[in-house]
């Protein structure tokens, strides 16, 4: 912890490089900067919140903090689930929220250049207004920011067709811990001029540098979308339906969301405003989308695919959305998870990857292990599945935030992930929540290399100390 004299001098230097609205300190710090979505509030506040307006100001702030050995926590939209953006007492928050805007849409290159604080929805809307699609999509689209999406390598609903956030980033600009600006706003898909430095920052959760701008790849805007909800008897049928749909629809399947019976029953009976398009009682439900350009032909192909799946016994029932409004109501089922922190609290939320063919057995094995330890636990499973991603939420009736055993639940869950050769994080990062379990998914040699990279880029360990991996 810095001395009062050092803190006073630090704040004075920061105030000199930021405008009056760019620095909050003491009682002026807004509570919203003190935690992300799932993390507990640290009892001690950050020493200040810096809100730069440009890359130059980010550079100046980090150079000052590096000289003072002041810990810095970059923040985006604060929708993270791993605790990386939650400041501990005495740390300085670096909020990118004022660095917003789409700087350019290059219709010939099919790219968009954006500032890091731009919300995902703003980027999507700007792309759509220019007759393009920015394909990354997730429930927090209205709040999460592009810089945070890149820093956590966000996934979302359409990975099976378009890939993760990493696959959308052609170039980026980042500021290192000492204030050095590394800019490579490349618009080309092919660029093999030495090391691909952008990959150092994508998925690094702010531990290696602060992303300030990015060039994003755009996709052609679909002319139509077909959406259906299907009921299935088994997990094997879920996988068979995925492959059947991908073959019959020639790569046009853009979303494939699997919901176990426990999830479907929970959201359709206990979340206000969510209706059940199909009766409860099936072991599995799948929400799938086709994106195409010819409503007539694509609609016919979609229905033919479903009919063939029904005849083959892969699905037992299906509801096809007849309008965009009805499709949106189907998606409310999947997006209802956003209500869990309110109506099902406290709960432990997990985001893991398991090889697609093993997800069904993994879910059964995990349920048995959790119920053996906590017989009254409620557990739901849901996920994208087509990209190996499974989400799990565990709720223990009667527990409060003070006695909820999240770490003990993690000690049951993550060894199961390792047993099935999976990853402890599919798309939400490591942060502080998963750091004790990183060795379940990374070898000692890989961890040593991560530490070497961290020490090289941030020798004073000021960027997000204590997150992802310890270097001391």
Written description of the protein model:
This protein has 472 residues and is of the alpha+beta class. The protein has 4 domains: 4-95, Uridine Diphospho-n-acetylenolpyruvylglucosamine Reductase, domain 2 (2-Layer Sandwich), CATH 3.30.43; 102-220, Uridine Diphospho-n-acetylenolpyruvylglucosamine Reductase, domain 3 (2-Layer Sandwich), CATH 3.30.465.10; 224-335, Alpha-Beta Plaits; 344-426, Alpha-Beta Plaits, CATH 3.30.70.2740. 32% of the residues lie in helices and 21% in strands. The protein contains 14 helices and 18 strands. The chain has helices at 4-17, 55-68, 120-129, 146-151, 159-162, 198-201, 235-248, 261-270, 295-311, 324-335, 340-343, 359-373, 406-419, 444-457, and strands spanning 23-25, 48-50, 72-75, 92-95, 102-106, 111-115, 132-133, 169-175, 181-184, 210-217, 219-220, 224-232, 253-260, 284-292, 317-320, 347-353, 378-383, 389-395. The strands form 4 sheets. Strands 15-12-14-13-17-18-16 form a 7-stranded antiparallel beta sheet, with helices on both faces. Strands 5-6-10-8-9 form a 5-stranded antiparallel beta sheet. It has a 4-stranded mixed beta sheet with strand order 1-2-4-3, with helices on one face. Helix 1 (4-17) packs antiparallel against helix 2 (55-68) and helix 7 runs antiparallel to helix 9. The longest helix is centred in the middle third of the chain and has 17 residues, at 295-311. The chain is globular, with a radius of gyration of 23 Å.
Task: Give the topology.
Elements: H1 4-17, E1 23-25, E2 48-50, H2 55-68, E3 72-75, E4 92-95, E5 102-106, E6 111-115, H3 120-129, E7 132-133, H4 146-151, H5 159-162, E8 169-175, E9 181-184, H6 198-201, E10 210-217, E11 219-220, E12 224-232, H7 235-248, E13 253-260, H8 261-270, E14 284-292, H9 295-311, E15 317-320, H10 324-335, H11 340-343, E16 347-353, H12 359-373, E17 378-383, E18 389-395, H13 406-419, H14 444-457
Parallel strand pairs: 2-4, 3-4
Antiparallel strand pairs: 1-2, 5-6, 6-10, 7-11, 8-9, 8-10, 12-14, 12-15, 13-14, 13-17, 16-18, 17-18
């Amino acid at each position: 912890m810095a001395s009062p004299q050092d803190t006073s001098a630090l704040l004075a230097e920061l105030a000199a490089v930021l405008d009056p609205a760019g620095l909050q300190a003491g009682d002026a710090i807004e509570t919203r900067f003190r935690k992300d979505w799932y993390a507990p509030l640290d009892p001690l506040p950050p020493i200040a919140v810096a809100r730069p307006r440009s890359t130059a100001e980010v550079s100046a702030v980090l150079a000052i903090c590096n000289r003072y050995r002041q810990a810095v926590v970059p923040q985006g939209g604060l929708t993270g689930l791993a605790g990386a953006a939650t400041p501990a007492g005495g740390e300085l928050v670096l909020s990118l929220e004022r660095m917003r805007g789409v700087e350019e849409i290059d219709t010939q290159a099919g790219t968009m250049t954006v500032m890091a604080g731009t919300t995902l929805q703003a980027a999507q809307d700007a792309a759509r207004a220019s007759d393009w699609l920015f394909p990354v999509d997730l429930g927090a689209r209205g709040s999460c920011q592009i810089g945070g999406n890149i820093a956590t390598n966000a996934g979302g609903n359409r990975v099976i067709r378009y890939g993760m956030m990493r696959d959308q980033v052609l170039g980026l600009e980042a500021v290192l811990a000492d204030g050095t600006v590394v800019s490579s706003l490349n618009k080309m898909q092919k660029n093999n001029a030495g090391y691909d430095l952008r990959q150092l920052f994508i998925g690094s959760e702010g531990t290696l540098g602060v992303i300030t701008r990015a060039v994003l790849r755009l996709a052609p805007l679909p002319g139509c979308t077909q959406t259906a909800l299907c009921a299935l008897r088994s997990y094997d049928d879920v996988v068979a339906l995925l492959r059947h749909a991908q073959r019959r629809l020639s790569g046009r399947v853009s979303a494939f969301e699997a919901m176990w019976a426990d999830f479907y029953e929970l959201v359709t009976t206990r979340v206000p405003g969510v209706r059940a398009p199909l009766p409860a009682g099936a072991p599995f439900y799948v929400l799938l989308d086709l994106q195409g350009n010819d409503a007539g032909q694509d609609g016919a192909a979609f229905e033919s695919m479903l009919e063939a799946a029904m005849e083959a016994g892969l699905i037992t029932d299906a509801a096809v959305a007849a309008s965009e409004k009805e499709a949106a109501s189907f998606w409310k089922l999947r997006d209802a998870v956003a209500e869990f922190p309110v109506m099902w609290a406290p709960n432990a939320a997990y985001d893991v990857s398991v090889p697609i063919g093993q997800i069904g057995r993994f879910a059964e094995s995990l349920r048995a292990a959790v119920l053996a330890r906590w017989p009254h636990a409620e557990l739901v499973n849901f996920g994208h599945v087509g990209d190996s991603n499974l989400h799990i939420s565990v709720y223990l009736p009667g527990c409060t935030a003070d006695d909820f055993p999240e770490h003990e639940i993690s000690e049951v869950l993550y060894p199961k992930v390792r047993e099935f050769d999976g990853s402890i994080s599919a798309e939400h990062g490591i942060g502080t929540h998963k750091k004790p379990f990183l060795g379940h998914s990374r070898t000692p040699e890989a961890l040593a290399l991560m530490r070497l990279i961290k020490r090289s880029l941030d020798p004073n360990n000021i960027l997000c100390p204590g997150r992802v991996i310890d270097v001391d």
